[in-house]
Amino acid sequence: FGHSFNGAQKLSPFPTSPKRRMPGPTPWPLIGDLPRLGATESPFQAFSALSRVYGEIYRLRLGTADCVVVSSFRLIKEVLISKGAHFGGRPDLLRFHALFGGDRNNSLALCDWSSLQKRRRGIARTYCSPRFASSNYDQLDRVANEEAECFIQHLETHVQHNAEIHIKPLLLAACANMFSSYMCSTRFQYEDTGFRNMVRRFDEIFWEINQGYVVDFLPWLQPFYARHLDKLAGWTRDIRRFVHERVVEERVRPTTTKDGEQTTNSSAETEPKDFTDALLAHLKEDPSLGWHHILYELEDFLGGHSAVGNLAMLVLTAIVRNPQVGKKIQEEVDRITKGTRSINLFDKADMPYTEATILETLRTTSSPIVPHVATQHTTIADYPVKKGTIVFLNNYELNTAAEYWEAADEFRPERFISNEGQIKKPEFFIPFSTGKRTCIGQKLVNGFCFVLITRLLQHYDIAAVDLDLIDTRPACVALPPDSFPLKITHRAKVVT
Ligand code: HEM
After folding, report:
1. Which tens digits make up the pLDDT trace of 359-382?
2. Ligand 1 atom, smallest distance to 368 CA
3. Residues with Cβ within 6 A of ligand 1?
4. ipTM score assigned to the predicted complex
5. Which residues are annotated as a binding site for heme?
6. From atom 29 of ligand 1, which residue's Cα is the shortest distance away?
7. Which residues bind heme (predicted)?
8. Residue 433 Cα, ligand 1 centroid: separation in angstroms?
């Protein structure tokens, strides 16, 4: 489940003798409870099955790592909110070190909590979580619309040749351009080989991050994975080179003005024009920030496009599996546009069914919350939890249990729409997690995904080439980089 653990931390015993012993199975020597997680397609299914036996909180030993699994909303809130300060760490991840230049603390999602992390989140927030009607929100709307236009034009050249299209790389390229237009004020041609390679590398990494390997918990297997780790490091070097050469260098290269003055293309001295400018300005102002912090942060956020592209692909998957959903989105699009214009981000508030479809896709795919780690000896539900313990927040249970949802295994966007036709989200629905390490990208996810899906369905009918080819995994928001084709045809009739 995408999280390796470079085990064997030496931990001091809990300071006071435990009053209560947390329930849990008896681990096997050496491998601990790992085999219990291999029996189901996703380890989160195993977490849920074990919670039926041991309850809303139980302990597991995965190889060398002490872990706790929390499966109820009540206790997930305790970990993420009321005791958020005790659980701000992340597992010490071998593969994640490989993905971030040998140090996972270069990554915003996989680093331990620190004052640097607080600052990095602060810089990102204005751009990644723009307030409705702010200038950044207007900018988000503008780049989403412009890129959606280019995307449809590019897609059209494919549709005219063959209706069966491997749309995933195109969707990802559109998302990558939305991100780079928004964050770096630059975009790339869809035919640009360097750009296509960069998009592919990010997607491979996104898929990789969503996989689990036994070595994550059995570090002594490391020699057998050396080549794999080298491959990951190579992918990230390719990306770093692209971002440096094609995005950042351009901005910091000195140019000579008409008056013969040397300046850079960055407007860091004035109001930052985008996220890249804001990062460069912080580099000048904050001596504790180095070049590599800036590069990694930019790269991390540009990489967010893979999550959006994979999610958009999963929305299309849900639509081809449930054709009535696509028809209802098209009805909503036609009601708003009357066939006379394109959808934009500001239409979202009047299109609850489309928004609800994205929410239902997030619910049914149930992207795991990145595991947290206790940074001090503490408790959950009065059970002692030692510093260094990995805590799995089982949001798969929150998204799929009958206790929370009626007909949980059915795809029903309507569940997110109130009788008054407004979007309603139950408190326990937390696809982006909650608390101090909550996802920073959710507004970008919802905005870009909304524009892409509505534009696609405004122009095309989308169907499966072969439903049996469509293979999705439970508790996973990633699809393999080489995934299935879809049948894309012009809409028979656009209602005006
Ligand atoms: C399908 C789309 C996405 C989903 C479902 C998702 C979900 C999540 C979840 C569950 C977490 C873990 C929070 C925790 O550990 O408590 C997270 C963390 C994070 N997400 Fe997202 N995310 C998505 C897309 C994005 C995008 C597009 C960006 C950036 C533009 C982004 C940036 C981040 C960052 C920086 C963190 C780490 C925050 C921290 O650890 O302090 N995410 N996301």
Report:
1. 999 999 999 999 999 999 999 999
2. 10
3. 108-109, 121, 128, 301, 304, 307-308, 311, 362, 367, 369-370, 431-433, 437-441, 444-445, 477
4. 0.98
5. 439
6. 441
7. 439
8. 8
Q: Determine the atom of ligand 1 nearest the C-alpha atom of 121.
A: 41
pTM metric for this prediction:
0.93
- Report CA(441)–ligand 1 centroid distance (Å): 6
Q: Beta strands 378-380 and 372-373: pairing type?
A: unpaired
